[in-house]
Specification:
The complex is a heterodimer. Chain A is α/β, with parallel strands linked by helices. Chain A has two domains: 13-176 and 186-281 and 378-488, Luciferase-like domain (TIM Barrel), CATH 3.20.20; 298-373, no CATH class. In chain A, 27% of the residues lie in helices and 12% in strands. Chain A is built from 13 helices and 18 strands. Chain A has an eight-stranded parallel sheet, covered by helices on one side. In chain A, strands 3-4 form a two-stranded antiparallel sheet. Chain B is an alpha/beta fold. In chain B, strands 1-2-5-6-11-12-13 form a seven-stranded parallel sheet, covered by helices on one side. Chain B is globular, with a radius of gyration of 20 Å. The two termini of chain B are 36 Å apart. The chains are: A alpha/beta, B alpha/beta. The interface between A and B is large, with 104 and 113 residues.
Chain lengths: 532, 328
């Protein structure tokens, strides 16, 4: 990645959003998106493929469109920390990253659940820190939409500081692994207290730190507040800036901010998101990419996309016809369809005018337009070999996923660290100080100066702190048929859930000998609020 | 809800649950466990204990929990959050029920319902919930809450159970249709808001997790919370067989009376379909020699009268009658 590092290391994670437009469910072979077996298989395949992280999204309200549950996209997903705790038991090396919200959680409660995942996974937990500002999501929580938009990152900063202080208050127990039961227990240093108006708690850590000290902190927000939070606290940013020029500017901006906070430019890893479409031939990959995009933006979804902007029912319009001729409502975008990119949160009418002009000029239908402007364009399309060698063309610009010395990331970091030094396992390393480049031949640890052959299948991979800024996070949302996972691992069969499909669920947990019998599924009870 | 509800004779099979938190109920249990201190929070220990309980034929493990670490005399013992522990063993077991203690007062009801529904998915329908309702001032302070008077606590416990049960019903069984012809993944008429409103919180719904495999999870609640009509299992304690039997009888009688009252008023169905099961909470010492003198307390420990570790019941306080497992 840099001139003095002949063996740069590519780190890969996989982001499974769980819901939304990018997941393709129409293929009858697509596995259940909620069955635990699907998650287990993805995580285990990723682990075999030497991915560093499996990353779950989160949204705290089921998406709606004009006041009704949105029915076109995959909806419904498990609690991320619960799901990753289950996966911790059936994986051994991969990082497990949970997206969790600072607006609608309590700092001590969330810090404790994340620390628990970190210990259960023996130091493989990560937290993707997100905020929510809208009262629509808040309607599911005790305080409702209590936090002003401009203060959400202020709260997040205080929240993360409290969490870090709790984690730091009880150092890892590793040093005492061999001590006998007669010895004294360590314990938390003391209570952590805050009462600021935005964060209020007095709490004591309930668990010691893991072998990695504390969970790895991810941040993905692109607003000014999000970037500041990243520069102050994050170990990794998951960047949506995938266009090359934007990504270069973004990286430069983050490094300026790091310097202002007294942090080294290398202390924050930038992981640009990328969608990857793989096939055995270039032509097949192009065809697959068209299929993926066509499924993501089918007719009903194209109309629903415009409805979010028009704020009105457009179901009478033909997705293959011209743009609606009626004027859009003037209200701002409804947040209930999910996250709206920052640049689209205001100026809706100007944006629609621009779209009308573009469509008129190029003769676009509704669907043509939405195919162009809706998020989710693949960054890499091609054969695995071509992508690995950097031989594909990419709409995103001159990126490359190569592990050669070419730059994979704008403004590459100056160090070449990669995986954990196996000798540092018991240490509380949360900083980028003890790693050795992992390569196909040998590694050398910068701290302890030992070297050896890498054990690629061994337990030395998970340190996400160690990731240099060269990571593509392909989204699983390409559908499992086209998932990069199966190719990276060499497994040719599609990911498929083993869960019985369509079997009567009442039987589960009830028919096995000695099972804790909870009885058949209750019939759906009367809706609350409705007289019985 | 379960088959025993419709029987006219009591179930004959003995149901056994194991409280698997930590090394045992005794404050010095971890020192007798033969394991190093770090093992208290190690996943391998949890795995072994729950696997042993399953192999021994237990129906259920419960996992005690509280927002603050349990004290072992002057020492603080580590404890992982119970929901994550239950999830961790969900893929390592296949028969035993998994019932973590989740607190109604120090969590968001929406997160609580989501966590438990997710546990039920991960375990293919083996999830339960031990309703925790800590009113301990220090526990409440972990989430910045002020002390809670007893009536408000009992109301909140009932409300969180109601909200969780309503959320578990927000997705009908056949809400996911995957109808490629019309492009509809969901039948949106089968995914519902709940618009729950109580004095201390509101929840809009629906749950972000599809309907759990069991539909409704098994809810276990301590007798002191007075939520027998909402629970599947009521946990009663007592120092001897007579005391336990008396409390169990009282729970059943109250449940029957509540059902009769509801029927007389023409009211709607109760959250459960019949009187709850009653579990007696017993501390068991398995040893060749009788007597707690075999297990001296660590220096500086408060006296120990038995009981699940970390449980702080509603009635726990200097003026209230002391529950046998109350350590305050």
């Amino acid at each position: 990645m840099t001139a003095h590092d002949p063996r740069p290391q590519l780190h890969l994670g996989l982001f499974f959003a769980g819901v939304g437009q990018q997941l393709i469910w129409s293929d009858p072979d697509a596995p259940s998106h909620t069955a635990i077996e699907t998650f287990v298989e993805i995580a285990q395949v990723l682990e075999r493929g030497l991915f560093d992280a499996f990353f779950l999204g989160e949204g705290l309200r089921v998406r709606e469109n004009r006041g009704q549950v949105f029915d076109l996209d995959v909806a419904g997903r498990p609690d991320a920390i619960t799901q990753l705790s289950a996966l911790a038991a059936v994986t051994g090396r991969i990082g497990l990253v949970a997206t969790q919200n600072t607006t609608y959680n309590y700092p001590a409660d969330l810090a404790r659940r994340l620390a628990s995942l970190d210990l259960l996974s023996e130091g493989r937990a990560g937290w993707n820190i997100v905020t929510t500002d809208n009262a629509w999501t808040g309607a599911n929580f005790r305080h409702g939409g209590w936090l002003a938009h401009e203060r959400r990152y202020e709260r997040a900063g205080q929240f993360v500081e409290a969490a870090k202080e709790l984690w730091a208050s009880w150092p890892p127990d590793g040093a005492r692994q061999g001590s006998d039961a007669a010895g004294p227990l360590s314990g938390p240093a003391g209570a952590v207290e805050r009462d600021t108006g935005l964060v209020r708690l007095r709490a004591t850590a309930t668990v010691p730190g893991s072998r990695q000290g504390r969970p790895v902190l991810f941040q993905a927000g692109d607003s000014d507040g999000g970037r500041e939070l990243a520069a102050r606290h994050a170990d990794v940013v998951f960047s949506a800036n995938t266009e090359y020029a934007k990504a270069v500017a973004y990286a430069a901006d983050l490094r300026d901010r790091l310097a202002r906070h007294g942090r080294s430019p290398d202390s924050l890893r930038i992981l640009p998101g990328a969608e990857v479409v793989l096939a055995d031939t270039a032509a097949e990959a192009e065809e697959k990419a068209r299929w993926v995009r066509g499924e993501q933006v089918n007719g009903p979804r194209a109309i629903a996309f415009l409805e979010q902007y028009w704020g009105t029912d457009l179901s009478a319009y033909d997705p293959d016809g011209p743009l609606p001729d009626i004027d859009p409502g003037e209200e701002e975008l409804d947040p209930s369809r999910g996250t709206i990119p920052v640049e689209r949160r205001s100026g809706k009418l100007a944006l629609i005018r621009k779209w009308r002009d573009q469509a008129a000029e190029r003769g676009w239908s509704v669907r043509d337009l939405v195919l162009e402007v809706a998020p989710g364009h693949p960054s890499f399309v091609g054969t695995p070999g071509a992508i690995a060698d950097g031989r594909t063309t990419s709409a995103a610009g001159p990126w490359t996923a190569s592990t050669s010395s070419r730059t994979c990331c704008p403004a590459p970091s100056r160090t070449s660290s990669t995986s954990w030094c196996p000798n540092s396992r018991s240490g509380a390393s949360t900083g980028p100080s003890t790693r050795a480049p992992r390569s196909a031949s040998t590694w050398t640890c910068r701290r302890c100066r030992t070297s050896g052959k890498p054990d690629l299948a061994g337990p030395t991979v998970p340190g996400l702190h160690a990731a240099p800024g060269t990571v593509g996070l392909p989204r699983a949302s390409l559908s499992f048929r086209t998932s990069p996972v199966e190719r990276v691992s060499g497994a040719r069969r599609p990911l498929r859930s083993d869960a019985p499909r369509g079997s009567p669920r009442a039987a589960r947990g009830c028919t096995r000998g000695g099972a804790w019998r909870t009885g058949p599924r209750a019939a759906p009870s009367p809706r609350p609020g409705r007289p019985a | 809800m379960t088959d025993h509800r419709t029987r006219t004779t009591p179930p004959s099979r003995l149901r056994l649950a194991l409280e698997a938190d930590g090394a045992g109920a005794h404050p010095a249990a971890w020192r007798r466990s033969g394991r190093p201190p770090a093992a208290l929070t190690a996943p391998g220990t949890l795995r072994e204990v729950v696997a042993a309980a399953q192999d021994a034929g237990f129906d259920l493990v419960t996992l005690a929990d509280a927002p603050r670490p349990p004290a072992s005399g002057p020492e603080t013992v580590g404890r992982l959050e119970a929901g994550t522990r239950a999830a961790y063993v969900s893929r390592l077991t296949d028969r035993i029920g998994l019932a973590p203690t989740l607190q109604v007062t120090t969590t968001e009801p929406f997160h609580l319902a989501t966590q438990l529904a997710s546990l039920d998915h991960a375990s293919h329908g083996r999830a339960g919930w031990v309703v925790g309702a800590t009113a301990d001032e220090g526990d409440l302070a972990t989430v910045g809450r002020n002390p809670l008077p007893s009536p408000a606590l009992l109301r909140e416990a009932a409300d969180v159970i109601d909200a969780a049960r309503a959320l578990w019903d927000t997705w009908e069984d056949d809400a996911v249709i995957r109808d490629a012809a019309t492009g509809r993944f969901l039948d949106r008429r089968k995914v519902h808001h709940i618009d729950f409103e109580g004095p201390s919180f509101t929840v809009k719904g629906p749950l972000i997790t599809p309907r759990p495999p069991q539909g409704q999870l098994v809810v276990l609640a301590p007798q002191e919370l007075d939520v027998a009509a909402r629970a599947d299992v009521v946990l009663v304690g007592g120092h001897d067989v007579d005391a336990v039997a008396a409390r169990a009888g009282a729970v059943r009688a109250a449940a029957v009376e509540a059902a009769a009252t509801a029927a007389a008023s023409g009211g709607g169905s109760s959250p459960t379909d019949g009187p709850p099961l009653v579990f007696a909470e017993l501390e068991v010492v398995l040893d060749a020699e009788a007597g707690a003198s075999r297990f001296p307390l660590p220096p500086g420990s408060p006296s120990w009268t038995g009981g699940p570790p970390g449980r702080t019941p509603a009635g726990c306080g200097t003026s209230a009658p002391r529950a046998p497992w109350c350590r305050c």
